[in-house]
Write a structure and sequence with these properties.
This protein is of the alpha/beta class. Helices cover 45% and strands 17% of the residues. The chain has nine helices and nine strands. The strands form two sheets. The protein has a seven-stranded mixed beta sheet. It has a two-stranded parallel sheet with strand order 6-9. Helix 8 runs parallel beside helix 9.
Amino acid sequence: MAQELEREKNKFSIIIPTYNERLNIALVVYLVFKHLRDIDFEVIIVDDGSPDGTQEIIKQLQQVYGNGNVILAARPKKLGLGTAYAHGLKHASGNFVVIMDADLSHHPKYLPSFIKKQMETGASIVTGTRYVRGGGVHGWNLMRKLTSRGANVLAHTILWPGVSDLTGSFRLYRKSVLEDLISSCVSKGYVFQMEMIVRASRQGHHIEEVPITFVDRVYGSSKLGGSEIVEYLKGLVYLLFTT
Protein backbone atom coordinates (compact mmCIF):
# COMPACT_ATOMS: atom_id res chain seq x y z
CA MET A 1 0.00 0.00 0.00
CA ALA A 2 2.81 2.41 0.91
CA GLN A 3 4.57 1.65 -2.39
CA GLU A 4 1.35 2.37 -4.29
CA LEU A 5 1.00 5.74 -2.56
CA GLU A 6 4.66 6.57 -3.27
CA ARG A 7 4.25 5.68 -6.93
CA GLU A 8 1.21 7.96 -7.16
CA LYS A 9 3.27 10.88 -5.79
CA ASN A 10 6.19 10.36 -8.15
CA LYS A 11 6.40 11.74 -11.66
CA PHE A 12 8.87 10.52 -14.25
CA SER A 13 10.33 12.77 -16.94
CA ILE A 14 11.65 10.66 -19.81
CA ILE A 15 14.33 12.53 -21.75
CA ILE A 16 15.07 11.22 -25.24
CA PRO A 17 17.77 13.01 -27.30
CA THR A 18 17.24 12.73 -31.07
CA TYR A 19 19.09 13.44 -34.27
CA ASN A 20 17.66 12.01 -37.51
CA GLU A 21 15.31 9.59 -35.74
CA ARG A 22 12.22 10.16 -37.90
CA LEU A 23 11.81 6.43 -38.47
CA ASN A 24 12.08 5.50 -34.80
CA ILE A 25 10.65 8.19 -32.55
CA ALA A 26 6.93 7.49 -33.09
CA LEU A 27 7.34 3.81 -32.19
CA VAL A 28 9.45 4.62 -29.13
CA VAL A 29 6.85 7.07 -27.83
CA TYR A 30 4.02 4.63 -28.53
CA LEU A 31 5.84 1.91 -26.56
CA VAL A 32 6.49 4.27 -23.62
CA PHE A 33 2.78 5.04 -23.36
CA LYS A 34 1.93 1.35 -23.76
CA HIS A 35 4.15 0.21 -20.89
CA LEU A 36 3.51 3.08 -18.44
CA ARG A 37 -0.27 3.05 -18.29
CA ASP A 38 -0.60 3.64 -14.54
CA ILE A 39 2.40 5.94 -14.09
CA ASP A 40 2.52 9.76 -14.03
CA PHE A 41 5.08 10.69 -16.68
CA GLU A 42 6.03 13.01 -19.52
CA VAL A 43 8.21 12.47 -22.57
CA ILE A 44 10.73 15.21 -23.35
CA ILE A 45 12.36 14.91 -26.76
CA VAL A 46 15.49 16.99 -27.25
CA ASP A 47 16.02 17.26 -30.99
CA ASP A 48 19.23 18.79 -32.33
CA GLY A 49 17.89 20.30 -35.54
CA SER A 50 17.39 16.98 -37.35
CA PRO A 51 17.23 17.61 -41.13
CA ASP A 52 15.20 14.41 -41.75
CA GLY A 53 11.88 15.72 -40.42
CA THR A 54 12.09 14.29 -36.90
CA GLN A 55 10.55 17.44 -35.40
CA GLU A 56 7.56 17.24 -37.72
CA ILE A 57 6.89 13.71 -36.46
CA ILE A 58 7.20 14.89 -32.85
CA LYS A 59 4.63 17.64 -33.48
CA GLN A 60 2.25 15.02 -34.83
CA LEU A 61 2.82 12.96 -31.68
CA GLN A 62 1.92 16.02 -29.61
CA GLN A 63 -1.43 16.15 -31.40
CA VAL A 64 -2.04 12.50 -30.51
CA TYR A 65 -0.82 12.45 -26.89
CA GLY A 66 -1.06 16.14 -25.92
CA ASN A 67 1.54 18.90 -25.67
CA GLY A 68 1.84 18.41 -21.93
CA ASN A 69 2.63 14.71 -22.31
CA VAL A 70 5.04 14.94 -25.25
CA ILE A 71 7.33 17.97 -25.07
CA LEU A 72 9.57 19.07 -27.94
CA ALA A 73 12.71 20.74 -26.60
CA ALA A 74 14.34 21.73 -29.88
CA ARG A 75 17.90 22.96 -30.36
CA PRO A 76 19.37 24.45 -33.54
CA LYS A 77 22.17 21.91 -34.06
CA LYS A 78 24.11 19.02 -32.51
CA LEU A 79 25.55 20.32 -29.24
CA GLY A 80 26.50 17.17 -27.35
CA LEU A 81 24.79 14.54 -25.25
CA GLY A 82 25.45 16.10 -21.86
CA THR A 83 24.01 19.45 -22.84
CA ALA A 84 21.02 17.64 -24.38
CA TYR A 85 20.18 16.15 -20.99
CA ALA A 86 20.72 19.52 -19.31
CA HIS A 87 18.39 21.14 -21.85
CA GLY A 88 15.78 18.45 -21.27
CA LEU A 89 16.00 18.94 -17.50
CA LYS A 90 14.92 22.56 -17.93
CA HIS A 91 11.59 21.24 -19.20
CA ALA A 92 11.25 18.39 -16.68
CA SER A 93 8.51 18.61 -14.05
CA GLY A 94 9.10 15.13 -12.59
CA ASN A 95 11.08 14.27 -9.47
CA PHE A 96 12.65 11.33 -11.33
CA VAL A 97 14.26 11.42 -14.75
CA VAL A 98 14.76 8.57 -17.20
CA ILE A 99 17.32 8.92 -19.97
CA MET A 100 17.09 6.60 -22.95
CA ASP A 101 17.97 6.41 -26.64
CA ALA A 102 15.54 6.97 -29.47
CA ASP A 103 16.80 4.24 -31.80
CA LEU A 104 14.87 1.34 -30.18
CA SER A 105 18.04 -0.07 -28.62
CA HIS A 106 16.43 0.65 -25.24
CA HIS A 107 13.04 -1.03 -25.14
CA PRO A 108 10.45 0.85 -23.04
CA LYS A 109 9.17 -2.49 -21.71
CA TYR A 110 11.96 -2.28 -19.11
CA LEU A 111 10.70 1.01 -17.65
CA PRO A 112 8.32 -0.63 -15.14
CA SER A 113 11.25 -2.74 -13.88
CA PHE A 114 13.35 0.40 -13.36
CA ILE A 115 10.53 2.06 -11.41
CA LYS A 116 9.83 -1.06 -9.34
CA LYS A 117 13.52 -1.43 -8.47
CA GLN A 118 13.71 2.20 -7.35
CA MET A 119 10.59 1.85 -5.20
CA GLU A 120 11.85 -1.35 -3.58
CA THR A 121 15.35 -0.09 -2.82
CA GLY A 122 15.10 3.69 -2.58
CA ALA A 123 18.00 3.97 -5.06
CA SER A 124 19.09 7.32 -6.41
CA ILE A 125 20.03 5.69 -9.72
CA VAL A 126 18.75 2.58 -11.48
CA THR A 127 20.80 1.62 -14.52
CA GLY A 128 20.15 -0.92 -17.22
CA THR A 129 22.93 -3.44 -17.68
CA ARG A 130 23.87 -5.86 -20.43
CA TYR A 131 26.43 -7.67 -18.31
CA VAL A 132 24.51 -9.56 -15.61
CA ARG A 133 22.32 -12.66 -15.77
CA GLY A 134 19.24 -11.84 -17.82
CA GLY A 135 20.94 -9.07 -19.77
CA GLY A 136 22.56 -9.17 -23.18
CA VAL A 137 22.97 -7.75 -26.65
CA HIS A 138 21.03 -8.59 -29.80
CA GLY A 139 22.05 -7.74 -33.34
CA TRP A 140 25.79 -7.21 -32.88
CA ASN A 141 28.40 -9.27 -34.66
CA LEU A 142 31.05 -11.10 -32.64
CA MET A 143 33.71 -8.43 -33.15
CA ARG A 144 31.48 -5.65 -31.83
CA LYS A 145 30.47 -7.76 -28.84
CA LEU A 146 34.12 -8.48 -28.05
CA THR A 147 35.04 -4.81 -28.45
CA SER A 148 32.24 -3.69 -26.13
CA ARG A 149 33.02 -6.37 -23.56
CA GLY A 150 36.72 -5.60 -23.71
CA ALA A 151 36.12 -1.88 -23.25
CA ASN A 152 33.92 -2.58 -20.25
CA VAL A 153 36.47 -4.95 -18.66
CA LEU A 154 39.23 -2.38 -19.23
CA ALA A 155 37.17 0.33 -17.57
CA HIS A 156 36.40 -1.93 -14.60
CA THR A 157 40.05 -2.83 -14.18
CA ILE A 158 41.13 0.81 -14.16
CA LEU A 159 38.24 2.51 -12.38
CA TRP A 160 36.48 -0.07 -10.15
CA PRO A 161 33.16 1.75 -10.52
CA GLY A 162 30.89 -0.67 -8.63
CA VAL A 163 28.48 -1.17 -11.55
CA SER A 164 28.59 -3.79 -14.28
CA ASP A 165 27.79 -1.65 -17.36
CA LEU A 166 29.70 1.62 -17.50
CA THR A 167 28.72 2.87 -20.93
CA GLY A 168 25.01 2.08 -20.85
CA SER A 169 22.71 5.06 -21.40
CA PHE A 170 19.39 3.64 -20.19
CA ARG A 171 19.04 4.94 -16.64
CA LEU A 172 16.65 6.32 -14.06
CA TYR A 173 17.87 9.13 -11.78
CA ARG A 174 16.48 11.19 -8.97
CA LYS A 175 16.22 14.55 -10.66
CA SER A 176 18.34 16.33 -8.04
CA VAL A 177 21.10 13.73 -8.38
CA LEU A 178 21.14 14.00 -12.17
CA GLU A 179 21.33 17.78 -11.99
CA ASP A 180 24.34 17.59 -9.65
CA LEU A 181 26.12 14.98 -11.77
CA ILE A 182 25.62 16.89 -15.02
CA SER A 183 27.00 20.05 -13.46
CA SER A 184 30.16 18.20 -12.36
CA CYS A 185 30.85 16.25 -15.57
CA VAL A 186 33.08 17.62 -18.32
CA SER A 187 33.16 14.75 -20.83
CA LYS A 188 31.22 14.76 -24.08
CA GLY A 189 29.64 12.11 -26.27
CA TYR A 190 29.72 8.49 -25.17
CA VAL A 191 32.29 9.09 -22.42
CA PHE A 192 29.73 11.31 -20.70
CA GLN A 193 27.66 8.30 -19.60
CA MET A 194 30.72 6.63 -18.11
CA GLU A 195 31.79 9.75 -16.24
CA MET A 196 28.33 10.22 -14.75
CA ILE A 197 28.07 6.72 -13.32
CA VAL A 198 31.68 6.72 -12.07
CA ARG A 199 31.22 10.05 -10.30
CA ALA A 200 27.90 8.87 -8.85
CA SER A 201 29.62 5.78 -7.44
CA ARG A 202 32.51 7.82 -6.03
CA GLN A 203 30.04 10.20 -4.37
CA GLY A 204 28.32 7.31 -2.64
CA HIS A 205 24.96 7.44 -4.39
CA HIS A 206 22.83 4.31 -4.07
CA ILE A 207 22.91 2.60 -7.49
CA GLU A 208 20.88 -0.45 -8.48
CA GLU A 209 20.91 -2.42 -11.73
CA VAL A 210 18.23 -4.00 -13.91
CA PRO A 211 19.18 -6.51 -16.62
CA ILE A 212 18.25 -5.39 -20.14
CA THR A 213 18.81 -6.69 -23.64
CA PHE A 214 20.34 -4.01 -25.83
CA VAL A 215 19.06 -4.26 -29.40
CA ASP A 216 21.04 -2.80 -32.28
CA ARG A 217 19.16 -0.10 -34.15
CA VAL A 218 16.80 -1.27 -36.89
CA TYR A 219 16.34 2.03 -38.73
CA GLY A 220 18.92 4.73 -39.39
CA SER A 221 22.68 4.67 -38.99
CA SER A 222 24.80 4.34 -35.88
CA LYS A 223 26.49 7.46 -34.50
CA LEU A 224 29.40 5.39 -33.13
CA GLY A 225 32.68 5.66 -35.01
CA GLY A 226 36.44 5.58 -34.61
CA SER A 227 36.58 9.03 -33.06
CA GLU A 228 34.23 7.90 -30.27
CA ILE A 229 36.53 4.95 -29.49
CA VAL A 230 39.51 7.30 -29.19
CA GLU A 231 37.48 9.58 -26.94
CA TYR A 232 36.53 6.59 -24.80
CA LEU A 233 40.18 5.70 -24.18
CA LYS A 234 41.04 9.33 -23.42
CA GLY A 235 38.06 9.43 -21.06
CA LEU A 236 39.33 6.40 -19.14
CA VAL A 237 42.64 8.13 -18.52
CA TYR A 238 40.89 11.36 -17.49
CA LEU A 239 38.61 9.59 -15.01
CA LEU A 240 41.52 7.59 -13.58
CA PHE A 241 43.20 10.79 -12.46
CA THR A 242 40.16 12.94 -11.56
CA THR A 243 37.77 10.64 -9.66
